[in-house]
Write a structure and sequence with these properties.
Helix content: 55-70%
Structural class: alpha/beta
Radius of gyration: 32 Å
Number of helices: 24
Distance between the termini: 94 Å
Strand order of the largest sheet: 2-1-3-4-5-11
Largest sheet: 6 strands, parallel
Strand content: 5-15%
Shape: elongated
Amino acid sequence: MKKKTAYLLLGIFLTTTVLGGCGKNEATEAASESAQTEKEGAGEDELTETPTPEAKSDKETNKQKSSKETETSDSDNEDKTEETTKASREKIAVLLPNEEKWTRDADEFKSTLEDDGYEPVIEYAENDVSRQVSQIQELTAEEVSAFVIAPVDPYGLKSVLESVKEAEIPVFSYDDLIMDTNAVKYYVTFGGRQIGQMIGKKIIESEELDKVREAKESRTIEFFMGSLDDTQALFLYNGLMETLQEYLDDGTLVCKSGKLSFDDTGILRWSKNTAKSRAAEILEQFYPDGAAPDIICTGFDDAAGAVQEALQEAGVVPGTDIWPMITGNGCKEDAVKCIASGTQAFSVFMDSRELADQCEEMVNVYLHGEDDPEVNDYEQYDNGVKIIGTYLCEPQIIDRDNYEILIDNGYYSEKEVEPDPTETPTPEPVTPTEAAEPTVTPTETPEEVSPTPAETETPTPTKKAEPTKKPTSTLKPTATETPIPTEKAKK
């Protein structure tokens, strides 16, 4: 009886100690207060989840009571604890839009979750919202411990996440913010607004817009932003316009097409074909006769690639003065090749491995940590129901001077991002082929003059002079290129 009362007192003491420790929270105070007032999020869930480690400790104490376990060696105990943890590993569901883009994220999640003793369940929706909804329903029934979701459609998960919240399964929004639901606990991303500001500042520096303004000159610019249904694309647009708006207002930057709003510049579902057709239309309407904007600002690398294709089809040659400054975002493999060859000015690198690591850490801390997960933004990410505590990872500008960083850090191999050798030599062979034409025409002139060998020596200078006229007439590319700098100067 004395032993039982001693165990009861010891249990009460441990419980009060653990609950007292939960009061210490190093995460943002606003996020903690919001979570507690809503009776969800970090505050309430920590109180409900703290008993789980105690339950495990109770099982361990019960095992220690048995005479068999007291007689076993330390090595046997270690083997048994390993077996029990394997058998009772918590499942963490990681739901990603597609396999093509998200393989690196999936690999990083798999390794980090397994390292922390979880069983990762990774599913791809193949860009199908209904399929992602079905995945959530099935995994909710399996009672996973947490969801990490990169939504196919940020607005398409409201209904299904109601049942997830009822099941008290925490949801972590990954990369893109899930909208119109209070089921989301935390959000991990690269700040879209921050990226937009970075792009804008790089344009200002590279094009020396302050000097252009002082000289009372202007530069033309066109915009191709991200998907209209993507919250991060909107944030990027807002950050970009915050930075460039003053130059648009005073005429230092001129958008000839007049397409400046997010609705007018956004490319639905990140379609490369849509971006290319829109670029072709703008070039034909507002930049005729082989002209081009000075700057083409895109919100994603596929749009940057589409614009380059449209420019070349319109007769604009890479490497010439008229070739515009083209910006991108995402550092896709093809984009890095273009940066290395000089056809794209820069892109923004977001290391998905870092993002996955940070999200996994938040999940682990939330489920079993003493404090709330760390957030560094609790202001700008409102999903329409509440402000979501967010951790923003750091992006980086990649240009021709530093693209090898991506090789050094193992994100790409050297082969993957080296520029195609066929692309750069194409402008150069133009002069050799034209020079080869005169060598063909002289072969015909000797046949006509062959009957009088003595006279063939005197006419040759005059007949060599005639072929020189032919190249000038055939060199139409150089004739079209000469007016281009004057158009550039007018801009």
